[in-house]
Amino acid sequence: MASPALRGMLGSCRLLFLLHRGSSSSSTHGDTGSGSLTKQAEATAATDWKKKLTPEQFYVTRQKGTEPPFSGVYLDNTESGIYCCVCCNAPLFSSEKKFNSGTGWPSFSEAYGTCGRDESNANIMRRPDNSLGSTRTEVVCKQCDAHLGHVFDDGPPPSGQRFCINSVSLSFRRGSGQ
């Protein structure tokens, strides 16, 4: 059962979809005034996220920010468990795949639900990121589109990947880590 806050956010997402769909169909009838409604719905969704998240969580997950290196609560965490999305609680990474990369952010060699290089059952998506003048690969939550961090091809074998993830974008569920 979804929490009231999550239900509210999902309602805002449905509203965005309906408004977008409505603006697409109304544009065929010459009505161009629905764009402001879409912007208002986007602002409502942002307000819902701001109510649920701390300012730092909102900055990182909704505005694609980055927490300062060596500042995250999960950087040195060695407990067994699952790291979940702070926004929607989707399982993202297992403690079994966490390693110390020395970069200042929690690092993982693969996403939870990954089988080899197949991430179709994982709750992450990769997107190109050209924001800092170089091409990187952004990692976002597949369920709620939260910005999590980036993935690089300099990790340990066998995957060779380093998911460099902001602690503030995660919650931690103690357990087996499987």
Give a structural overview:
The chain has 178 residues and is of the alpha+beta class. It is 28% helix and 22% strand. The protein has helices at residues 4-26, 35-52, 55-63, and strands spanning 81-85, 91-94, 98-99, 107-108, 124-129, 136-141, 147-152, 162-165, 170-174. The strands form two sheets. Strands 3-4-8-7-6-5 form a six-stranded antiparallel β-sheet. Strands 2-1-9 form a three-stranded antiparallel β-sheet, with no helix packed on it. A hairpin with a 6-residue loop joins strand 5 (124-129) and strand 6 (136-141). Helix 1 runs antiparallel to helix 2. The longest helix is centred in the first third of the chain and has 23 residues, at 4-26. It is globular, with a radius of gyration of 18 Å.
How is the topology of this model organized?
Layout: H1 4-26, H2 35-52, H3 55-63, E1 81-85, E2 91-94, E3 98-99, E4 107-108, E5 124-129, E6 136-141, E7 147-152, E8 162-165, E9 170-174
Antiparallel strand pairs: 1-2, 1-9, 3-4, 4-8, 5-6, 6-7, 7-8
Helix pairs in contact: 1-2
Write a concise keyword list for the protein shown above:
six-stranded antiparallel β-sheet; three-stranded antiparallel β-sheet
Range of strand content: 15-25%
Report helical residue fraction.
25-40%
The stretches of 5 or more residues where confidence is low (pLDDT under 50) are: 1-34
The largest β sheet comes out as: 6 strands, antiparallel
Strand runs, count: 9
- The average pLDDT score comes to 83
Summarize the structure.
The chain has 178 residues and is of the alpha+beta class.
